[in-house]
Amino acid sequence: MPIFPKISLRPEVENYLKENFMNEEVAVSSKQDAQGKFEAPLNHLSHPPSFTSVRVNTHLASVQHVKSLLVDELKKLNGLIVPVLQHPDLQDVLLIPVIGPRFVTVSFSNYIFSK
User: Where are the domains of the chain?
Assistant: First the structure.
């Protein structure tokens, strides 16, 4: 039993993906394999990311400056010391590990639309 719920798609999107993942060429080996190839990406999409990525505009600020700003803001936000890492291959990308669970306050707003 999966931990995360299956991602729900609009019917037209799901039908489009099924047509591509379960076509005759893919289903040559077996219909069950084709179904697995269709469901695998959907299962991966339902998992939360391990990192939040931040791309730095190096024309406006240095990567180190943005990194220090992020560390300061994260300290103010929740009092935790969360590491901000530089991507090993993409020098202008910073990575913030997702540390959870985080408590989310749900707020409801009333919207009134008139014609």
Answer: 11-45, 51-97
Query: For the whole model, what pTM was predicted?
Result: 0.58
> Which residue is associated with the tokens 């080996």?
29
Helix, strand or coil, per DSSP, at residue 27: helix
In whole angstroms, what is the distance from residue 24 CA to residue 75 CA? 54
Neighbour-count burial for 55-85, b at 16+ CB within 10 Å, e otherwise: ebeeeeeebeebbeebeeebeeeeeeeeebe
Integer Cα distance of 17 and 38 in angstroms: 8
Q: Domain 51-97 belongs to what topology?
A: Alpha-Beta Plaits (3.30.70)
Model pLDDT for residues 34-86, shown as the tens digit of each residue? 777 778 888 888 887 889 999 999 999 999 999 999 999 888 877 778 899 99
Write the pLDDT tens digit of every residue in 25-34: 666 667 777 7
